[in-house]
Amino acid sequence: MLHRLIPSSPLFLDWGLLLLRVVAASVFFTSGLGHVKAPQERARSLGLPVGFTIFLGWAEMLGGLGIAFGVLTQWAALGLILVMAGAIYMKAVRWKTGFWGEKNSGWHYDLLFVAMCIVILLSDGGHLTLMRLF
User: Fold this and answer.
1) Over the stretch 103-115, which tens digit does the pLDDT of each residue have?
2) Going by C-beta distance under 8 Å and a sequence separation of 6 or more, which residues neighbour residue 5?
3) I need a labelling partner for 96 at 20 to 30 A (CA). Which of 29, 70, 71, 126 fits?
4) Distances (CA, A) of 22 to 19, 53, 68, 69, 95
5) Cα separation of 93 and 96, whole Å?
6) pLDDT at residue 53 above 90?
């Protein structure tokens, strides 16, 4: 019989969820910051209006902060799932990019972030959140 490498524990789970939240948040925040800092350039590359690109940037930054710090965690995760659903739609339907895409630019990456946000949504980010402190 195989033994577990790390024993199951709610504490380990909470630290794992915190790591997941911080990693996902760092990607969302930096992506959103890019949209806000250079909206014309990003809008042109995405084929979206500048105003909507700025909105997406703020949604990614605020959602990233929400999941990182555990403030309105489920709402932040849900909002980020919607953002990523839009990204998958753009890549798969509008740009006809395959799952892996050319030079790994497919929508597999976006799907991973949807899965991460679903875990955050269903777990409410775990117990290591600011909302649980107050």
Assistant:
1) 778 999 999 999 9
2) none
3) 29
4) 5, 23, 5, 8, 30
5) 5
6) yes
Closest CA to 30 of 2, 57, 5, 9: 57
Mean pLDDT of 60-78: 98
Q: What pLDDT score was predicted for residue 52? A: 97
Q: Does this model's pTM top 0.70?
A: yes
Average pLDDT over residues 41-53: 96
Alpha carbons 97 and 23: distance in angstroms, whole number? 25
Nearest-5° angle of CA 52, CA 42, CA 58? 45
Spatial distance between the Cα atoms of 8 and 32, rounded to a whole number of angstroms: 35
Q: What is the pLDDT of residue 78?
A: 98
Rounded Cα distance, 82 and 84, in Å: 5
Residues 130 and 134: their CA atoms lie apart, in Å, by 7
